[in-house]
């Protein structure tokens, strides 16, 4: 058959954000839109001849269509082999796992993660490099540059094979191998965690609810929790991936996973609750009447890392994104290991993990992971907690409270202002930046500003520099106010305001975080002219 060279013209705005290119499905459906971006990826990665690519997505609307197009384009670019998950499915962590295990050249993930799906929803595409992790920024910028000057893309005119049948077929000379999307991943999890102990825990009557939110985590949770670990059938709910996630945001936070929270806070709640997002790289951990703050979850995992067989030798270090609370820093100090502060987005953890400088990574946005792959990993975090519950014999809330008693509590909250007018949001950030020089030493509502800057990160491994990564105002007592604009939204701008206050006093650990953080929120609103500039009285989402 024939390899076609199709003339095309550039689309504006194909710059990858925090995690790949995310747009409305309708934008991706424009003729050539997906093709242009994929051509730009293949032009940037270098010689594809004879290479192996891994391909799959979170099952949302347009996933299959995109996989078929990418297969035909990969064949036209000389790839020898593409490993594609059955049904075009691979969770983000599973793709990372397969890239590493099969020593592939790279991978393409189709997902808009926690953003809603369906014809009216969002779609996304992201390139992962040979370490299994998201392409670093210099790479994504090169892809963007390529989209600006594109004149043609190459594609085979052969149809893509049936993606629901495991096995090998061909497009042109290229092998298409439809693989079991859960196999490699499940084997890796069984290596890292004490499955015998978790199995015994479930056998003893321990109860759990895992809410897969109709997203790609369902098949993984079914296979591992109800399959390998013997949790009773029905432990996993909403476990069949739907193209529109049942009309919900597949976002595991207390607002979007309200049904799980309601169950966990009601009388007769199961012992443990958890949820993952659209592509199963995020996790929410819930105990009886307690949702665990993601920053605390990272700190607790770090403090207890050695309970899991995969981490018995201890951890080399921790990395957290800048807006994530400093709770993990306290654990790192106690363990005598470094804690790195990176910009938002998992791509910044790759070098530290590859260099063996850190073992655990996390973000406040319900993302936790380790050096086992190069993406955050929702199921991994759930299994870590199960391993910890099995090893300690304690419930979630006791583990969290004991952690606070030992290290103090970093009271934390994120306020999101979604779909704000873009120029108003840019103006707010510029206004904040303009004040930074004069803030240090200023007193505000009982706090004294110790440091005010726009976060700049120099990668300790390759010395690459990322600038303008968020405005942070740090008080002398360690309290922090952080502002940044989201790089994953598809409508207007989303302003994220992150608030943190350290509370050593045990007696104050039960006060509502919003009450504890009210003073900092007021300072943030005043300094940024939030209400005046956005017209918003309240955040859209508080987590
Ligand atoms: C958000 C989170 C960030 C996360 C990113 C991708 O980015 O804040 O921590 O890495 O989503 O996660 P932003 O730029 O919107 O704040 V996922 O699960 O959407 O791939
Ligand atoms: Co995600």
From TrEMBL:
Matches recorded under SUPFAM superfamilies: Phosphoglucomutase, C-terminal domain (SSF55957), Phosphoglucomutase, first 3 domains (SSF53738)
Q: Which cofactor does it need?
A: Mg(2+)
Q: Name one GO molecular function term.
A: phosphoglucomutase activity
InterPro entries noted in UniProt: A-D-PHexomutase_a/b/a-I (IPR005844), A-D-PHexomutase_a/b/a-I/II/III (IPR016055), A-D-PHexomutase_a/b/a-II (IPR005845), A-D-PHexomutase_a/b/a-III (IPR005846), A-D-PHexomutase_C_sf (IPR036900), A-D-PHexomutase_CS (IPR016066), Alpha-D-phosphohexomutase_SF (IPR005841), PGM (IPR045244)
A GO-annotated cellular component: cytosol
Q: Please state the span of the N-terminal signal peptide per the UniProt entry.
A: none
Answer yes or no on keyword Transmembrane: no
GO biological process per UniProt: carbohydrate metabolic process
| Keywords annotated in UniProt | Isomerase, Magnesium, Metal-binding, Phosphoprotein
What does it catalyze?
A: alpha-D-glucose 1-phosphate = alpha-D-glucose 6-phosphate
Q: What is its EC number?
A: 5.4.2.2
Please indicate if the UniProt record lists Magnesium as a keyword.
Answer: yes
The residue ranges of the Alpha-D-phosphohexomutase alpha/beta/alpha domain are 14-150, 185-286, 295-407
The UniProt family comment states: Belongs to the phosphohexose mutase family.
Q: What is this protein called?
A: phosphoglucomutase (alpha-D-glucose-1,6-bisphosphate-dependent)
Origin species, per record, is Massilia psychrophila
């Amino acid at each position: 058959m024939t390899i076609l060279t199709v003339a095309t013209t550039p689309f504006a705005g194909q710059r990858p954000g925090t995690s790949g290119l995310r747009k409305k499905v309708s934008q991706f459906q424009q003729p050539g839109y997906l093709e242009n971006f994929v051509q730009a990826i293949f032009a940037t990665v270098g010689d594809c001849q004879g290479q192996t690519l891994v391909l799959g997505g979170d099952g949302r609307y347009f996933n299959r269509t995109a996989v078929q197009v990418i297969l035909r384009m990969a064949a036209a670019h000389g790839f020898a082999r593409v490993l594609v998950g059955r049904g075009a499915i691979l969770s983000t962590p599973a793709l990372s796992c397969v890239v590493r295990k099969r020593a592939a050249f790279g991978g393409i993930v189709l997902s808009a993660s926690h953003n809603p799906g369906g014809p009216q929803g969002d779609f996304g595409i992201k390139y992962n490099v040979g370490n299994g992790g998201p392409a670093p920024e210099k790479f994504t910028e090169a892809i963007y540059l390529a989209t600006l000057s594109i004149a043609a893309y190459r594609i085979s005119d052969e149809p893509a094979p049936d993606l629901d049948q495991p096995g090998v077929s061909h497009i042109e000379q290229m092998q298409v191998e439809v693989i079991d999307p859960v196999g490699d991943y499940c084997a890796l999890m069984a290596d890292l965690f004490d499955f015998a102990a978790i199995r015994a825990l479930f056998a003893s009557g321990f109860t759990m609810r895992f809410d897969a939110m109709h997203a790609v985590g369902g098949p993984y949770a079914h296979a591992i929790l109800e399959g390998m670990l013997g949790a009773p059938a029905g432990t996993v709910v909403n476990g069949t991936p739907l193209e529109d996630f049942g009309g919900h945001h597949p976002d595991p936070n207390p607002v979007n996973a309200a049904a799980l929270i309601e169950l966990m806070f009601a009388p007769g709640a199961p012992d443990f609750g958890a949820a993952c997002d659209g592509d199963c790289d995020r996790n929410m951990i819930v105990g009886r009447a307690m949702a665990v703050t993601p920053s605390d979850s990272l700190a607790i995992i770090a403090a207890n890392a050695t309970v899991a067989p995969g981490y018995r030798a201890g951890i080399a270090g921790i990395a957290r994104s800048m807006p994530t609370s400093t709770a993990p820093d306290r654990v790192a100090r106690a363990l005598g290991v470094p804690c790195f502060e990176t910009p938002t987005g998992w791509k910044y953890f790759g070098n530290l993990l590859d260099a063996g400088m850190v073992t655990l990574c996390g973000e406040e946005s319900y993302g936790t992971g380790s050096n086992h792959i190069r993406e955050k990993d929702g199921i991994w975090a759930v299994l870590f907690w199960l391993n910890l519950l099995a090893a300690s014999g304690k419930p979630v809330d006791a583990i969290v409270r004991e952690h606070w008693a030992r290290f103090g509590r970093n009271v934390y909250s994120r306020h999101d202002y979604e779909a704000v007018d873009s120029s108003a949001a840019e103006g707010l950030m510029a206004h904040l930046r303009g004040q930074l020089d004069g803030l240090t030493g200023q007193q505000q509502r009982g706090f004294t500003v110790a440091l005010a800057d726009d976060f700049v990160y120099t990668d300790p491994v390759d010395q690459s520099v990322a600038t303008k990564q968020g405005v942070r105002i740090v008080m002398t007592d360690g309290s922090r106010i952080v502002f940044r604009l989201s790089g994953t939204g598809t409508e207007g701008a989303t302003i994220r305001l992150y608030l943190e206050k350290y509370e050593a006093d045990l007696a104050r650990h039960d006060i509502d975080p919003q009450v504890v953080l009210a003073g900092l929120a007021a300072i943030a609103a005043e300094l940024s002219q939030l209400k005046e500039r956005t017209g918003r009285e309240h955040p859209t989402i508080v987590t």
